[in-house]
Amino acid sequence: MLVKITNSCVAFGANTILSNIDFQINEGEKVALVGRNGSGKTTLLKLISGEYDLAKLDNGETSSIITARNITIGYLRQITFEDENITLEDEVKKAYKEIFDIEIRMEKLLSEMESSSNNSAVKKYSELQERYNLIGGYTYKKEYETAIKQFGFADEDKRKALSEFSGGQRTKIAFIKLLLSKPDLLVLDEPTNHLDINAIEWLEEYLKAYKNAVLIVAHDREFLDKIVSSVYEIERGKITKYTGNYSAFAEKKRLDWEIQQKRHIEQQKEIAHLSGLVDRFRYKATKAAMAQSKIKQLERMDIVEAPELADTKSFHADFEPEYQSVQLVLSAKDLKIGYSKALSTLSLNIMRGEKIGIIGGNGLGKSTFLKTIVGAMPELGGTYSFGDKVKIGYFDQHMAQYKSDKTVLDEYWDEFPNLTQTEVRSALGAFLFTHEDVFKPVNALSGGEKVRLELCKILKRRPNLLILDEPTNHMDIISKETLEKMLKDYSGTLLFVSHDRYFVKQIASSVLVFDNGNVDYYPFGYEHYLEQAAKKFADEEIVVVKEKSQKKKFTTPGKEKAKMEARVKKIEVLIKECDERIAKLQEELQSEAVISDYVRLTELQKELMAQEEINMGYLEEWDELQHKLAE
Q: Is 532 in the same domain as 566?
């Protein structure tokens, strides 16, 4: 057990956020925490990480949070760096403090062993070497270089000072450092936000292989499915545990609801039947005893309550394009997109009714492409044009940071001044802005609320071409599912960027993939793209193997056999030499002079291990050649 919370609640003033919390996470366990936006997920994470305290229970009972002794909990708080002038690489390498400390201690012990005979130093050195290997002392450099690359940083970025990076990049740097520090409990709040698909897939593999415990809040269903083994759901201030990944949780929750509903209905029928018998016979002398037994049966009955409906409240909009566009919606030829230099070049035709998902790494031009075609930035070359009667609705991913001193009501009404107040309130209500919510300043809204407000405005205009850049970044799973259904039913044309693979799978009829300057079109959706990418990778592997073995095509069987026989003889000589060298090393290790020379002892042991590995390689090759010759 790493963390255990029992019979607890969290409150701010008179407002109770979470009640009756029973939560536990064990060593090596990978747990998801799910629930609606505002349900208290981040509050629970901050409670576990020590930022918040438990509230005092009204009933006087004891609430508690228990953590294992000396546990390390890693949680990404507000991004601050001790020294803004150090490089990205040096900041990330701080995650390996224990490794560097061990290196220093090993160096000191080596000096001690060289200057004098010290059995204690030898023992400590051996223990440190074992620990060094266990925590990745021989592999850490490759690990952090891979992480830096997968998070979208180039080699030259490693030498840049932290002060040179943007806010988003600094968050990524802090995240890399947190991952590589390998705490006993890694607490992640929406880790896939703003990561491209390549980075998400790398993170999945990293977390699957992660030996310590992980607690994740995320709205990426595929990500959760691939990593977690249990799910805690927060709903209406209560927390419930389910075993399995996200899909298993969703199915179990549905089945539990159906079973309880069925039991409730059956019990209500039985109650009605028994109550009817009692009412009918309780005043008849001959049936009074039977009526009394039915009354007692009713009194002893454990009532099965009707199950609460799941909290699926979400925005809704029954909208269709104001009018249809022509068949050819957008045509681009050799369109170069970028800033000072071209990031990508593409040619394509988008037809009416297509739903195209755009995927690829960060910084390759996906958002730039959308900004270019909506006129927010100029093209660097080539041409593009829209067909007649195309009416565009464009959602920019940065809308979650939109600032305005206006109220929600005024922000919307100023866009549509011809509407009545009733019509405005009705439109905003459909997107969950009800009662006093409409008088909130836009600046006070959360990222998800700003996204809803912007979608409400876009859809009111009834465009026939929707261009959406990361519309789901600030949405919970219920909201994502709502948007999925809305876009599936939409009869217009859709062009959208998303790193949420499940979302892309559900909606995209075709996929546009940005990959290092190239843009490839896959007409049959995301699954088709995955199949083609896997096939391409396999073909490349075959080409590499063929290139390596090309020379063998022109070798006759007789020549090939002669070569193998010659190699066998050569290996036998090498094995003999190796055996002789191993025997000499073993003899030297046993000598009295070496036993007291700890430096020489260490050198000989390393050399012996290396020779034994070489010998094993020769033996395996010899055995393989003998099998081939026998065939």
A: no
Alpha carbon distance 507, 494 (integer Å) = 9
DSSP assignment letter at 60: -
On whether both 477 and 419 belong to a single domain, the answer is yes
Q: Which two tokens stand for residue 69?
A: 């002794």
Mean pLDDT score of the chain: 87
Last residue within a domain, chosen from 486, 509, 539:
539
Is pLDDT larger for residue 77 or for residue 272? 272
User: What dihedral do alpha carbons 338, 343, 346, 350 form, nearest 10°?
Assistant: -60
CA atoms within 13 A on the CB side of 510: 17
In 503-512, which positions are buried (b, 16+ CB within 10 angstroms) versus exposed (e)?
bbbbbbebbb
Least confident of 137-141, 287-291, 609-613: 609-613
Judged by average pLDDT, the poorest of 476-490, 539-553, 584-598 is: 539-553
Residue 337 CA, distance from chain mean position: 29
User: Are both 528 and 617 inside the same structural domain?
Assistant: no
Phi and psi, residue 418, nearest 5°? -80, -10
Cβ pair 374, 467 in contact under 8 A: yes
Range of the domain at 282: 250-300
Mean pLDDT for the stretch of residues 398-410? 88
Instruction: State how far the Cα of 352 lies from the Cα of 304, in Å rounded to an integer.
Output: 53
This prediction has a pTM of 0.74
Say yes or no: 137 and 257 in one domain. Answer: no
| pLDDT at residue 90 tops 50 | yes
pLDDT of residue 119: 77
Could you give the number of structural domains in the chain? 4
Nearest to 499 by CA among 489, 486, 482, 514: 514
Residue 67 lies inside a defined structural domain of this protein: no
My answer on whether 475 and 404 are in the same domain is yes
How many Å apart are CA 557 and CA 276, to the nearest integer?
95
Closest Cα to residue 267, out of 303, 307, 309? 303
User: How far is it, in rounded angstroms, from Cα 116 to Cα 572?
Assistant: 43
Look at residue 41 and tell me if it is in a domain.
no
591: in domain = yes
352-363 confidence digits (pLDDT tens): 999 999 999 888
Identify the residue whose tokens are 């549509």. 416
297-329 residue pLDDT tens: 999 999 999 988 877 888 888 789 999 999 999
Q: Tell me: do 468 and 386 sit in the same domain.
A: yes
Residue 224 CB neighbours (<10 A): 25
Residues 291 and 354 in one domain: no
DSSP strand pairing (328-338 vs 392-395): unpaired
Looking at the structure, do residues 534 and 571 belong to the same domain, yes or no? no
